[in-house]
Design a protein that fits this description.
The chain contains 20 helices and 12 strands. By secondary structure, the chain is α/β, with parallel strands linked by helices. The relative contact order is 0.09. It binds 6-phosphogluconic acid.
Length: about 475
């Protein structure tokens, strides 16, 4: 008998937490997993949390599908890549026209688009949904970025809207566009997440090595900053990470953790797609590059032996400079991220609602932060060609870019790497100057390749008379 409102396959951490969240909101969820033992563990957990009456464990896939009310909405929460394609193939024989697969992992949006196109003629809906907020978010309220088959979206809308985080009573779940739109937006969310994390780490480097602050002292500063304009989840958790003490040694845990950052791909995808569309996203690119350099620990250690330890004399930047530099850097980075989304919307015909995206990022997701509310208002007014020219943000940038400048300059002379903050500053300086230096690039291009250049009032495919360098 079909009694479940929705089905969910894949009971690893994120999947189980989403299922428990659905059950808690009063919906009945049928669950299935490849390994039966995981289903048993989930059932025990649901029982422990008093939610077993809203969960229906099913060990057999056909039986699982039959348990879900038609037209069916079936969430799959398996590893991105081939496991998703395999799962679709396994499910297909059991589905009926009008049913939908709702894939909630961190999939590459072009894969999502391909799967959407593949299932459309079969009349099976495909929704690629970005879910942000980690384990806790999945359990208590993530930010949910929906893309794909709009008709089938309405079947699942009530459930996903109910389980999402809320900001001032509004659900942080929204349908954003066709095909791969939801996963695209989630990817750029992650790119921005990379930028935020890297900029925070760069500021921590100055605190630790330039200002000689202990982890505990740094933690206190981040906690204080979280009360001000930088207020955000990532600033908040940075305070907690810096505060944590290792049980075995009594030392700050952060000082024992190896300085090699992992990455699963979404940052790289963001940087690639931005480049492909000709949208500068230097903060994301910088953050991805910084993670890659961090992972080359052996090479770094060897290079340090050659050049000697960085000469980190005490710096004269203040904590206030660092706070403002971080704010300015973050605004530049978000401006870039939204510009990437705007361009992708245009190229793919998605009509992505930028104000809504900023709104559903105000709670639940990893990049939730106070200024996203201001960003959503800017987009609601339709003001934003680029956030850097929206009055609210112009005011913040005017107040903070001098600090960003001071911090980046101190980093250069003090031998601190600052890939992301310096990239943000250079972008700002490039974007706000009416006269740049690409005139020289155009001259060079014409010199060696007759690529042509433009002179105002004289035409756009002009050529210079250049001296020959042959034989010299
Ligand atoms: C989120 C996160 C999450 C992501 C991790 C790991 O929004 O909840 O973005 O989806 O998987 O942050 O990403 P990396 O391993 O690439 O850092």
């Amino acid at each position: 008998m079909a009694t479940a409102d929705i089905g969910l396959i894949g009971l690893a951490v994120m999947g189980s937490n989403l299922a428990l969240n659905i059950a808690e909101k009063g919906y009945t969820v049928a669950v299935h997993n490849r390994s039966a033992s995981r289903i048993d563990e989930f059932t025990a957990e649901a029982k422990a949390q008093g939610l077993e009456q809203n969960t229906i464990p099913k060990y057999d896939l056909a039986d699982f599908v039959q348990t879900v009310k038609a037209p069916r909405s079936i969430i799959i929460m398996v590893k991105a890549g081939k496991p998703v394609d395999d799962m679709i193939e396994q499910l297909l024989p059991h589905l009926e026209p009008g049913d939908a697969i709702i894939e909630c992992g961190n999939s590459l949006f072009t894969d999502t688009q391909r799967r959407f196109d593949y299932l459309k003629p079969k009349n099976i809906g495909y929704l690629g949904v970005g879910v942000s907020g980690g384990e806790e978010g999945a359990r208590h309220g993530p930010s949910i970025m929906v893309g794909g088959s709009k008709d089938q979206w309405h079947n699942a809308e009530a459930v996903l809207t109910a389980i999402a985080a809320q900001f001032n009573g509004e659900s942080c779940c929204a349908y954003l566009g066709e095909g791969g739109a939801g996963h695209f937006v989630k990817t750029i969310h992650n790119g921005i997440e990379y930028g935020d994390m890297q900029m925070i780490a760069e500021v921590y480097g100055v605190m630790r090595d330039g200002l000689g602050m202990s982890a505990k002292e740094c933690a206190e500063v981040f906690k204080k900053w979280n009360q001000g304009p930088l207020n955000s989840y990532l600033i908040e958790i940075t305070g907690h990470v810096l505060d944590a003490v290792d049980d075995q040694t009594g030392k700050p845990l952060v000082e024992l953790i190896l300085d090699k950052a992992g990455q699963k791909g979404t940052g790289v995808w963001s940087a690639i797609v931005a480049q492909q569309m000709g949208v500068p996203a230097t903060a994301i690119e910088g953050a991805v590059a910084a993670r890659s350099i961090s992972s080359r620990k052996d090479e770094r250690v060897a290079a340090e032996a050659i050049y000697g330890k960085p000469n980190r004399a005490k710096t004269d930047v203040t904590l206030e400079d660092l706070e403002k530099a971080l704010l300015a850097g973050k605004i530049v980075s978000y401006a870039q991220g939204f510009a990437v989304i705007a361009k992708a919307s245009e190229e793919n015909g998605w009509a992505l609602p930028l104000a809504t995206i900023a709104k559903i990022w105000r709670a639940g997701c990893i990049i939730r932060s106070r200024f996203l509310d201001q960003m959503s208002s800017a987009y609601e007014k339709g003001e934003a060609v680029n956030l850097l020219v929206v009055p609210d943000f112009v005011a913040i940038m005017k107040d903070s870019h001098l600090s960003l400048r001071k911090v980046v300059a101190a980093a250069a002379t003090g031998e601190f790497p600052m890939i992301c903050l310096s990239a943000a500053l250079s972008y700002f300086d490039s974007y706000r100057q009416g006269q740049g230096t690409a005139n020289l690039i155009q001259g060079q291009r014409d010199f060696f390749g007759a690529h042509g250049f433009e002179i105002e009032g004289r035409g756009s495919d002009l050529h210079g008379t250049w001296p020959s360098t042959l034989g010299k």
